[in-house]
Design brief:
Elements: H1 10-32, E1 38-41, E2 59-62, E3 82-87, E4 106-109, E5 112-113, H2 116-126, E6 131-137, H3 138-147, E7 153-161, E8 165-168, H4 171-187, E9 201-206, H5 210-219, E10 224-225, E11 230-235, H6 238-251
Parallel strand pairs: 1-2, 3-6, 6-7
Antiparallel strand pairs: 4-5, 4-9, 7-8, 9-11, 10-11
């Protein structure tokens, strides 16, 4: 979310909605395991999109990742499951709301186009952790389940009308849908496969601007520049592919630093 000074109170109202959605997800986790230790990562903007002080005491908040590092900062093999609230499709997902993949047009692992949720699931999968539940708009949910696994539990909370408009479910119902999806996903955790790739992983990045591909190649000359806007590198595994993509995305924006 990004604050719009022309719409007083709109950002704070959106924070309220998102906080309630996250609380609903936490409630779902605690319904399955009242003693669960939960990590919540507020990973957009300045990590101040959710009033995390309202979350239960057994929730630890990861703040400051803010996409500077990643959206699943801190994940490792000690976790049982990953849940993504507010998932969105990639740039090419038709009628997905606010669809994007970081600042690039497309990123592919071994030829497979990924969403940001797919990237997160790939790192979780590296550690053997399945993505069990998501929430998002209708088009994004459909695309992400096709991308990763149709067994992922999902709460469809809106229908996109192009990229910037949507028909939204009533917030009271949204909270119920998210809570139910989380419970469903966790109860079926052992049935949901982790998102994995055969190693090594060929990572193709298509940038929006040819300068970004130039900057990528300039800073990492051993990588291949496939076209004016596309680069390629080879990673040993999904962890190296994930962090390798993030590093190259940041280097490609050198002009804007």
């Amino acid at each position: 979310m990004h604050k719009d000074p022309s719409a007083p109170g709109a950002y704070e109202r959106a924070q309220r909605f998102l906080t309630d959605d996250v609380i609903a997800a936490v409630e779902g986790v605690l319904e399955v395991d009242p003693e669960a230790e939960i990590w919540f990562n507020d990973a957009h903007g300045r990590s101040m999109n959710v009033f995390f002080e309202e979350l239960p005491e057994n929730v630890k908040a990861v703040v400051g990742s803010a996409e500077l590092m990643d959206e699943v900062l801190g994940i490792d093999g000690s976790f049982d499951a990953l849940i993504c609230i507010g998932s969105h499709g990639n740039v090419l997902t038709e009628d997905a709301v606010l669809n994007h993949v970081w600042d690039v047009r497309e990123v592919r692992f071994n030829g497979k186009p990924l969403s940001e949720t797919g990237l997160n699931a790939s790192l979780a999968g590296y550690y053997g952790v399945p993505l069990v539940a998501i929430s998002g708009d209708e088009a994004s949910v459909k695309a992400i389940r096709e991308e990763i696994s149709p067994k992922i539990a999902a709460a469809v909370v809106k229908k996109g009308l192009g990229r910037y408009s949507a028909i939204c479910v009533n917030p009271k119902k949204t909270k119920r849908l998210i809570r139910e999806a989380v419970i469903d996903g966790l109860l079926r955790k052992d049935e949901i496969p982790t998102f994995t790739f055969e190693n090594p992983i060929i990572v193709d990045i298509t940038y929006r601007d040819q300068f970004n591909a130039y900057a990528h190649k300039f800073f990492i000359p051993e990588d291949e520049r496939v076209s004016s806007v596309e680069t390629r590198f080879v990673a040993e595994n999904a962890k190296d592919a994930y962090y390798g993509f993030l590093a190259r995305d940041k280097l490609s924006k050198a002009r804007h630093q």
